[in-house]
C-alpha cells in the first residue's frame, strides 16, 4: 500500500527548534553531534528544564496532603499537568494515571489483572479475571516491557500466552492478527509503532477485532505519542502506556491511560498512602482512578515538566511534527537502501514507518558499527532494543538503530548513511551482502 504523507501549513523551523536544545550544540569526538537516538530517549528543550526548576524553586510541596496555601499551589500545578496530558491524547482527566515509566504503566495493568484473578477487587473486577483456557495475545515484535508482564500474568493465572507472528521483514498485518485473536482471547497487547522496524500497527482494525471477541486492548504508545497526533478515544483502545522521556520530558514519570470505568474496577497494583477512602485493621477501601493507583509521594515536578513538554509539542503542531518525521523516514529508507551490503529491517520504500531505521551490517557486529559511528560524532542505539524474540525471528542477534525527532535534520540523516557506507570497508569486510 502506498503511503500519502500528511499535509500541513508548512515545515518545522529546525534552526529555531535546535536553538532550544543546548545539548545538540556540543561536539562528540571532535565532530558536531548528530543525535540519532531519540527512540531511546529524547533531549529536553530549555522550556521544559526551566519549568521543572521553577516549580521546585517556588511551588514544591506535598500534593493532596494538608490544607496550606503551598499545598494548594502544588496540587493545582500537579492536576493541571494531568489535564494538559489528558487533552493531548484525547482522554479524560480521570483516565490518566502517573506511573514511573511506560514499563511500570503496563505492569500496573498486568498486576491488577493478576489480583483480580486472585479474587481481589469485587464483582466489578470480573472483566479482568483470567483462568485456564483464557488467552493473552501479543505480537512477536513486542518490546520486552509489553511481553514479560503478560508472560508472568499467564503463569499466575493459568491463561495461555499466544502471539501474532511477524513476516520475514518483521512486520505483521490485521490478517495475521485475525489468525490468533479469537473467542478465548481476553487481552490483546501490542505496540502502535515498533521500536525496531518502525512498523505502524493497524490499531483500529485490531481493536475492532478484539472487541468483537470481548477482549480488552492495551496499546504500547511509546513510539507514537511523541511523534504523531494520537487520540486514544478515537483509536478505541482500553489501555495505553507511554513515557515522558521519549517526548521531551523528564525521566521518572510515565503515563497509563485507561477507560474510566475500567480503571475504577482494576485492583490497584501498589497500595498505601493517598489511595484509600477508609482503612481498618482488617481491610481498606480505595479511591476511584487515578488516585487509587498513585500510592505514596508523587512525581510532581516531573509531571509539571511533562506538561510543559506537551505544550512545546502543541506549539509546534503534531501534524507538522508528523510530516517532518515522514520526510526523515523516507530519507532514511532511501539512503540506507542504496548502501551495498546493508540490510534494512522492516518495510521498504512506499510504506509509512516511524522515523527510525534498524540495520544489519553482515560481517560486522552492531556494537562495532555503533563505535565506528560514535567516532564520527553520530550517536545511535545498538543491541536487540529490548526485542530479542523479534531479532531471533529475523535471524539477527543485534542491529544498529538510528531514530529521529523534531530537531533532527536531513543533513544528520545523510551523515549517518554516509558513515554507515564506510563501515564494511573500514573493517575489511567483503563478500556476503544483505
Automatic annotation (TrEMBL):
InterPro entries: Aminotrans_V_dom, Aminotrans_V_PyrdxlP_BS, Cys_dSase_SufS, PyrdxlP-dep_Trfase, PyrdxlP-dep_Trfase_major, PyrdxlP-dep_Trfase_small
Reactions that this protein is recorded to catalyse: (sulfur carrier)-H + L-cysteine = (sulfur carrier)-SH + L-alanine
EC number: 2.8.1.7
Cofactor(s) needed: pyridoxal 5'-phosphate
Coiled coil segments of this chain: none
Keywords: Pyridoxal phosphate, Transferase
Keyword Cell cycle belongs to the record: no
Keyword Transferase attached: yes
GO molecular function (one): cysteine desulfurase activity
Start and end residues of each Aminotransferase class V domain: 35-416
GO BP terms: cysteine metabolic process
NCBIfam families in alphabetical order: sufS (TIGR01979)
Family statement: Belongs to the class-V pyridoxal-phosphate-dependent aminotransferase family. Csd subfamily.
Described purpose of this protein according to its UniProt entry: Catalyzes the removal of elemental sulfur and selenium atoms from L-cysteine, L-cystine, L-selenocysteine, and L-selenocystine to produce L-alanine.
Protein name as annotated: Cysteine desulfurase
Organism: Agromyces aureus
Amino acid at each position: 500500500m502506498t503511503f500519502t504523507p500528511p499535509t500541513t501549513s508548512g515545515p518545522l523551523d529546525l534552526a529555531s527548534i535546535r536553538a532550544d536544545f543546548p545539548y545538540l550544540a556540543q561536539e562528540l569526538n571532535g565532530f558536531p553531534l548528530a543525535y540519532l537516538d531519540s527512540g531511546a530517549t529524547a533531549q529536553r528543550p530549555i522550556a521544559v528544564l526551566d519549568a521543572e526548576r521553577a516549580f521546585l524553586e517556588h511551588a514544591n510541596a506535598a500534593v493532596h496532603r494538608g490544607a496550606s496555601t503551598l499545598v494548594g499551589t502544588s496540587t493545582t500545578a500537579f492536576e493541571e499537568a494531568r489535564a494538559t496530558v489528558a487533552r493531548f491524547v484525547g482522554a479524560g482527566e480521570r483516565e490518566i494515571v502517573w506511573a514511573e515509566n511506560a514499563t511500570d504503566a503496563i505492569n500496573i495493568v498486568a498486576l491488577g489483572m493478576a489480583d483480580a484473578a486472585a479474587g481481589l477487587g469485587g464483582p466489578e473486577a470480573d472483566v479482568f479475571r483470567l483462568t485456564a483456557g483464557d488467552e493473552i495475545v501479543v505480537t512477536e515484535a513486542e518490546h520486552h516491557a509489553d511481553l514479560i508482564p503478560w508472560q508472568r500474568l499467564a503463569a499466575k493465572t493459568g491463561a495461555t500466552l499466544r502471539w501474532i507472528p511477524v513476516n520475514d521483514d518483521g512486520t505483521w498485518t490485521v490478517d495475521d492478527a485475525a489468525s490468533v485473536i479469537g473467542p478465548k482471547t481476553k487481552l490483546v497487547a501490542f505496540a502502535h509503532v515498533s521500536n525496531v522496524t518502525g512498523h505502524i500497527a493497524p490499531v483500529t482494525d485490531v481493536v475492532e477485532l478484539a472487541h468483537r471477541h470481548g477482549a480488552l486492548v492495551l496499546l504500547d504508545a511509546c513510539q507514537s505519542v511523541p511523534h504523531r497526533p494520537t487520540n486514544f478515544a478515537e483509536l478505541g483502545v482500553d489501555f495505553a502506556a507511554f513515557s515522558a522521556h521519549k517526548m521531551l520530558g523528564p525521566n521518572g514519570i510515565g503515563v497509563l491511560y485507561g477507560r474510566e470505568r475500567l480503571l475504577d474496577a482494576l485492583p490497584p497494583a501498589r497500595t498505601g498512602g493517598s489511595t484509600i477512602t477508609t482503612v481498618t485493621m482488617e481491610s481498606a477501601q480505595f479511591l476511584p482512578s487515578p488516585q487509587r493507583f498513585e500510592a505514596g509521594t508523587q512525581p510532581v515536578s516531573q509531571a509539571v515538566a511533562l506538561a510543559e513538554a506537551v505544550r512545546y509539542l502543541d506549539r509546534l503542531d503534531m501534524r507538522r511534527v508528523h510530516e517532518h518525521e515522514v520526510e526523515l523516514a523516507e530519507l532514511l529508507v532511501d539512503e540506507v537502501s542504496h548502501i551495498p551490503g546493508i540490510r534494512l529491517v522492516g518495510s521498504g520504500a512506499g510504506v509509512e514507518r516511524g522515523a527510525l531505521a534498524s540495520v544489519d551490517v553482515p560481517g560486522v557486529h552492531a556494537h562495532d558499527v555503533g563505535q565506528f559511528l560514535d567516532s564520527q560524532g553520530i550517536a545511535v542505539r545498538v543491541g536487540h532494543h529490548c526485542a530479542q524474540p523479534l531479532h531471533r525471528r529475523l535471524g539477527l542477534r543485534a542491529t544498529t538503530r538510528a531514530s529521529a525527532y523534531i530537531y533532527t535534520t536531513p543533513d544528520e540523516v545523510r551523515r549517518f548513511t554516509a558513515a554507515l557506507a564506510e563501515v564494511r570497508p573500514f573493517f575489511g569486510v567483503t563478500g556476503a551482502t544483505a
